[in-house]
């Protein structure tokens, strides 16, 4: 089996085109850049079976379409077309909508700079169409095209990097947050959401004993994700239920609502009443850890779980409204970079139709059994108390609950709400901008 | 460049293990099946640059893990493990939750049938663990593992097949539906949603002149998708806006909210007041058509638009709530089968940070310009009237609007709502089951 790997070779010819002298002016250079791309074919080792995403088209930059700018001692290159299109003046960029308003019907892809100058804080470019642009240097550097600058941007503002864990790590990574502090402090709110995004789990304590207490927490983020089970949901034993979560029996490890293409991102479970009986413990497992473990130790099963689409399914009636949800996705969904993007797992809500080839059925079941066993092995066990809101990433962790004895004097009741990652990352970024106050982000 | 293609060769040894005679009993056979897989390496033609998804693991079915069943003259095979896990009895399947409740901790992947029998409507299997299962034959056939049965299942109940169109086709495919009929007839509701899912566009007419009229239509599906712009939104000229759609100037072709990972699936735009001035026309373009066109005529640009992640972005304040949305995705997103899954396109809401290699910037801009030009070329132009609800697939079509003259006597006002495809496909399936009444679907 052959893979293509993408390698880039660049040579630079420096041509200083304009130098201004003055108190706040540094030297800068407009570089002529030639670049060539070549493909290196290599055979991966047997265990390396993940798909490597490649760009298969050979491009040569024209020799004159990049501007080199020295910013705080670093030489950075910016394509002309990118600079011109991202002009921040009021004609090109709408300040209150924070959006590009440049008319693409009159946009010249081959635009070139006529004059370039720089002072300590800004780069000024006059273009061959006569338009004048100015760029904040911190803003430019933050958008630099080097891998280092791009990685810094990603971790600073796109999404924090996830850290995986298993049952042994769990006591160290399981952070606890105070309900009132989250409502009253931006730092506490930021810290809670940051822990939740990095580890996929965080606990809120000291929540008032009220069915609406969870709303104030949700409002600090934005709003809930509504599903056919409602805007919020109550988890307690319901004999003639439309969902197995509403039974008191053992609730096997699962993700919620895998049959939603837009599967709820985060599950917030407010424990109002915890059963005094034995049982009712939570189990949580980080599937990013388990996926990595399988990739190393069971690569063929990992491949089956990442490649084989399964049909997730929920059919029923809730509050008089019928639903018939189907969604096809593997158990382990990878993104374009081969990183785990989403986990789907639910024995009750896996449909009976198998959309793949018959030959894969038995091996897939074996992989599925191993995935479940590993999640049980590496999962953490604990029991929430009344006043806790257990918050976890529903497209990363499996959660389950041991059976408990349900009686009139021994109930268990949770109020649940879902919030999507779109809203959580958005709130995290707003808080980061507010708390860290770094120049050049927006 | 090499591709792997997956080929399967099977040989069958038929062994009739049990034959019952009687009024409603047909012959059936338990087949011993051996299968081998082999990989054929072929070089694709130069224009074939799409990724071919392959299953890279070599599996051999055991010789005794498939059951052959003749159903209505067709010989179908079912893996034992699949049959046992999908037993429909009350111990294994919860009837009201319509969910599997079999305990996987005690599930034997190597389960085997001890006795098999069949009558005209059902297959009966007694397993080596003593458990007895019964399967409706229509239910089984609908879940058959042949490509033909799987395709039939997919089109019958998973999702209707999309049909692409361009500006010339538009008058033929642009279906019109009556507001009251949709509210009062399941057939009309089904027909509207079916057209919307196949063509990505459908018009509702004769809607009452009320800001809440759209709610009744949404309620027939389920509920709206809430975003940071609200549960519904009003589109009219707002001078100091947080979104360029609220301006009266030319609104370039775009998809709404590409910066949402969970991008709104369908856009419903109720035209309350249409401008009497020249301008304000809608433009709609089917990007599935344009993508296919680019794949054939501009394969390198197609590859750039499908492979290069772009950062979509919206930063602002709405109703006092700050938001900072970022989402990375190519313009043309493909699914695991190489089919277009989602389109992202918005010049104002494309962020300034480019997450890819600098060499791709200029070629990507050229591909982007061509994509826009082709959508303008193949897009359909028309003007909605007061009382229309324009409904379109927001992750498939681009939409835009010509500039109009906004004055006190010449306004234009729309009420908009988003609904996700999860809810639309769900409603379509419920209606299909109700209207077509086919046995074996659930």
TrEMBL record, chains A, B:
Family per similarity comment: Belongs to the gamma-BBH/TMLD family.
Alphabetical UniProt keywords: Carnitine biosynthesis, Dioxygenase, Iron, Metal-binding, Oxidoreductase
Necessary cofactors: Fe(2+); L-ascorbate
Domain Gamma-butyrobetaine hydroxylase-like N-terminal positions: 66-140
GO molecular function: 2-oxoglutarate-dependent dioxygenase activity; metal ion binding
InterPro entries linked: AlphaKG_dependent_hydroxylases, GBBH-like_N, GBBH-like_N_sf, TauD-like_sf, TauD/TfdA-like
Any Gene Ontology biological process: carnitine biosynthetic process
Ranges of residues in domain TauD/TfdA-like: 176-418
Metabolic or biological pathway: Amine and polyamine biosynthesis; carnitine biosynthesis
CDD domains attached to this UniProt entry: CAS_like
Organism name: Spodoptera frugiperda (Fall armyworm)
GO CC entries: mitochondrion
Protein name per its UniProtKB record: SFRICE_012088
């Amino acid at each position: 089996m052959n893979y293509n790997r993408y390698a880039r070779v660049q040579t630079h010819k420096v041509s200083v085109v304009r130098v201004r002298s003055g108190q706040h002016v540094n030297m800068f250079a407009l570089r002529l850049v030639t670049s060539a791309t070549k493909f290196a074919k290599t055979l991966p080792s047997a265990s390396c079976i993940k798909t490597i995403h490649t760009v298969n088209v050979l491009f040569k930059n024209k020799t004159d379409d990049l501007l080199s700018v020295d910013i705080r001692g670093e030489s950075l290159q910016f394509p002309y077309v990118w600079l011109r299109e991202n002009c921040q003046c009021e004609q090109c960029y709408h300040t209150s909508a924070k959006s590009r308003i440049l008319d693409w019907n009159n946009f010249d892809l081959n635009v070139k700079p006529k004059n370039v100058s720089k002072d300590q804080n800004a780069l000024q470019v006059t273009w061959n169409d006569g338009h004048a642009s100015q760029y904040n240097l911190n803003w430019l550097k933050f958008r630099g095209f080097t891998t280092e600058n791009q990685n810094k941007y990603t971790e600073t503002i796109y999404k924090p990097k996830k850290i995986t864990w298993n049952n042994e790590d769990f006591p160290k990574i399981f952070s606890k947050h105070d309900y009132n502090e989250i409502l009253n402090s931006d730092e506490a709110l930021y810290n809670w959401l940051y822990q939740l995004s990095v580890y996929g789990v965080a606990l809120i304590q000291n929540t008032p004993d009220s069915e609406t207490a969870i709303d104030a927490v949700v409002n600090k983020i934005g709003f809930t994700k509504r599903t056919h089970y409602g805007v919020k949901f109550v988890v307690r034993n319901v004999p003639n239920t439309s969902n197995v979560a509403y039974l008191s029996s053992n609730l096997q490890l699962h993700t919620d609502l895998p049959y939603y293409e837009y599967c709820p991102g985060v599950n917030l479970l407010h424990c109002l009443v915890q059963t005094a009986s034995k049982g009712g413990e939570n189990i949580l497992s980080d599937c990013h850890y388990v996926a990595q473990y399988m990739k190393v130790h069971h690569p063929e099963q990992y491949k089956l779980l990442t490649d084989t689409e399964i049909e997730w399914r929920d059919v029923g009636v809730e509050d008089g409204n019928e639903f018939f949800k189907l969604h096809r996705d593997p158990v382990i969904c990878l993104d374009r970079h081969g990183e785990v993007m989403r986990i789907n797992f639910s024995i009750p809500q896996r449909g009976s139709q198998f959309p793949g080839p018959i030959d894969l059925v038995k091996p897939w079941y074996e992989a599925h059994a191993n995935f479940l066993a590993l999640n049980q092995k590496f999962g953490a066990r604990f029991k929430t108390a009344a006043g806790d809101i257990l918050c976890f990433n529903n497209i990363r962790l499996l959660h389950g609950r041991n059976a408990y004895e349900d009686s009139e004097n021994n109930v268990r009741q949770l109020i649940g709400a879902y919030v999507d990652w779109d809203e959580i990352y958005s709130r995290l970024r707003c808080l980061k901008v507010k708390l860290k106050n770094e120049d050049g982000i927006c």
